Amino acid sequence: MTSRAQTILITGVTRRVGAHLAEHLLAAGHRVIGTYRHETDALHALIDRGLIALPLDLLERERLAAFARQVAGQTDHLDLIVHNASIWHRDEDVAANPELATAMYTVHVTSPIELTEHLQRALPARERDDGHADRQAVFITDAHIDEGEPDHIHYIASKAAIESSIRSLALRYAPHTRVNAIAPGLLMFHPEDDIEYRHHRLNRRLLPFEPGPGVVSQTVDYLMACPLINQAVIRLDTGRRWGN
Ligand SMILES: NC(=O)c1ccc[n+]([C@@H]2O[C@H](COP(=O)([O-])OP(=O)(O)OC[C@H]3O[C@@H](n4cnc5c(N)ncnc54)[C@H](OP(=O)(O)O)[C@@H]3O)[C@@H](O)[C@H]2O)c1
What CATH number should be reported for the domain holding residue 203? Predict the structure, then answer.
C-alpha cells in the first residue's frame, strides 16, 4: 500500500465491484470520488463513509468535459482513475436492439478515453523531477478477451478495444501518467444465476471458486504501490484450463 493518501476517481460505484473498491479505498484513508447514474443503498452507505458522489452517464459524451471540470472543482490533484463502469449485453439483445452495440463501445471505449483526456486538460498530471508517474489510469477489462465468449461477441470486442488502447494511451501520457488494465474472469455471480450455470462457469476454471470483488481491490492496491508497472494487463482468471 502507498503511504500517502491518494485522490481517486472510480466510475460506476453503485454496486458490486465499483462499490467494493470505493469502500476498500475509503477504509484505507484515501479520498474517493465515485460516479453514479442510479442511487442505490450501496451508494448512500459510501456517501456516509465520505465518498464524494458525482452523477455521470458515460453515454452522454457531450457532458464529459463539464464533468472533468467538476472533478477539478473537488481536488487539485488526481492520483488514480479507475474506469470500472460497464454494461454487459448478450449478442441476442444486440440483435434485437443494434444500438446496444454502440452503447457498449461508448461506455467501455470512447467515453473512458475522452474522459481521461478531459481530466488531463482540466486537472493536468505533471512530469515529476523523480521520474515517477504523477497519475495512473486503470481500465477494468475482461479475461475472456483471450478465451472468447460466443454469446457476448460485441461486449468482448469492446473490452478488447479498450485493453488495446492502454498501450497507445501510455505512450501519449508518459512520463506523467501510467496506464494499466485489470482483466477479471468470473468475479461474482448474479443472484439470478442458477446452480447449473454456476457449476458450468466454475468447472471452466483451474481454481473453481467464486472470488468476489476483493481481488480487484487487491490488484488496484498493487498497481498503486508498484511505480514501475505501465502498459500492463493483469489477468485475474485463476489460469486457463487447457482445451476448454
Ligand atoms: N462481475 C464479474 O464477474 C466481472 C467479470 C469480468 C469483468 N468484469 C468487469 O468488472 C467491472 C465491474 O463489474 P460489475 O459486475 O461490478 O459490473 P455491474 O454490476 O454491471 O456495475 C456496473 C457499474 O457501471 C455503471 N454504469 C453502467 N452504465 C453506465 C453509464 N452509461 N454511465 C455511467 N456508469 C454506468 C453502473 O451504474 P448504474 O447502475 O448507476 O447505471 C454500475 O455502477 C466491469 O468493467 C466489468 O466489465 C466483471
Answer: 3.40.50.720
